[in-house]
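Subject: sequence -> structure tokens, single chain

Hey, anyone have a minute? Need the predicted structure for the following. Not urgent.
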Amino acid sequence: MQRSLKWFAAATTVVMLFVLIGGALVTKTGSGMGCGRSWPLCNGQWVPDDITPELVIELSHRLVSGLAGIMVLILSVWAWRVIGHMRETKFLAVVSFVFLVLQGLIGAAAVVWGQSDFVLALHFGISLISFAAVLLLTLLIFEADKTFSAVSLTLDRPMRVHIYGIIIYSYIVVYTGALVRHTNASLACPSWPLCAKTRPFPVQFHEWVQMGHRLAAGLIVIWIAIAALHAIRHYRSQPVIYYGWIIALFLVLAQMTTGALVVFTQLNLYVALAHAFFISCLFGVLSYLLLLALRTRRAPGKTMAHPPEETAPTVLKWR
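Reply:
Had a minute. Here:
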């Protein structure tokens, strides 16, 4: 059963990633009204008569989201029964399903009644929390089966500050990026990194939205680079932290690159979807680092033989 649970958890994580990318595809192609003001049916029909590309994209997203909802519910109950003894399991099981349902309700409300761009921008962020919870639940399942282990980790205070601060700030960056998409401000500034070659500063709403996101994204690149440098200098003996921050740095640089290419390619669809993919993966990695940091905070304090820096770290007992 444990092996089946591992495969099912991995499959659920992949499906959740498709939900995130599918939502970005709906927004990028303007397919939100592909099924009209009807939900869950499409134009009030089980089998629509007038098939359009927008209808196919919107309906496909609804079907994948529905499949994800069923799979996340099964995974939550299954994991609760098998690894419910692990401290985080029940919390992650509830969060993964509740937030997936919440994002579905927001999407349905947007179709039937309409929503402001500022509310719709929350849709991606809520889905992201559900994805991160499913990913962490999957990692717990693999860890419980001793597929990998992270025993006796220590985190100094600067590293914990980086983790807590970056995960919170990354959510702000995600929101500003979603706001760019929902306000159709992706190409408001024709140049990069400045708004325009002859006019570097924004002068109207859409340009402010675009440049606000660029500023927020630029700051997170710098912050993650600082955290990664700290990990490279002090955490080589702890691979899960060391490689976690290296992966995070690679993902945030890839996200920045695709963000610039969105402008240079005039909103190429594949580049835009890659942009959403990288931020989704980045948030997942940061969520895992947060899980480790929270464990170190509540674990009983012991000092290792070679703690990082001169602080008195707290020992992480993984099991």
